[in-house]
């Protein structure tokens, strides 16, 4: 609320968000864990909402071996050759962007221009995807272009770490950069946000 200058409003149209199947499933998961169970977690937060250093070790995306994680991703690329038609069909699935569209519409209605960043891909995985044409990237860029016709946002393509000065060491696993690369990436995103993050 404190980041929204005009405050927030809640109407009957928002009720379905809290009564949806997903919301009910999430509520049941919390009930099972915290009412029927002990509701203890090794994840701890600081007063500002950030994770403590110790908690970072317990995140699900923290890989025990970066090399093993990359090898698994590479094996997946070799085993699964997605076509452009398949990639387009996956993104065109009904309801796929329902909440994303609502979020963009909400931000634009408030005069905000969000910044959307295409996540980095580990260098050897990116090279393997490019060798098979990387149809997922092409379909994604087409979808971004369609969204741009309806909404105002800044798009920053950070898939290739060479574009923003990243390195192959600072990764938690094959799909998540760690804090070292994140600091570098955030500086790049702010510099290429068209003033939206100034």
Task: Explain the overall architecture.
A two-stranded parallel ribbon has the order 1-2. The protein has a two-stranded antiparallel sheet with strand order 3-4. It contains eight helices and four strands. Helix 3 runs parallel beside helix 6 and helix 4 runs parallel beside helix 7. It has 198 residues and is mostly helical. Helix content is 45%, strand content 7%. A hairpin with a 2-residue loop joins strand 3 and strand 4 (176-177). The protein is globular. It starts with 14 loop residues before the first helix and ends in a 7-residue tail after the last helix.
Keywords:
198 residues; mainly alpha; two-stranded parallel sheet; 8 helices; 45% helix; 7% strand
- Strand proportion: 5-15%
Distance between the termini: 20 Å
Gyration radius over CA: 20 Å
Q: What is the mean predicted local confidence, pLDDT?
A: 84
In short:
With 198 residues, the protein is mainly alpha-helical. It has eight helices and four strands, in the order H-H-H-H-H-E-H-H-E-E-E-H.
Give the topology, please.
Blueprint: H1 15-18, H2 21-34, H3 66-79, H4 84-91, H5 98-109, E1 115-118, H6 123-131, H7 135-150, E2 154-157, E3 171-173, E4 176-177, H8 179-191
Helix pairs in contact: 3-6, 4-7
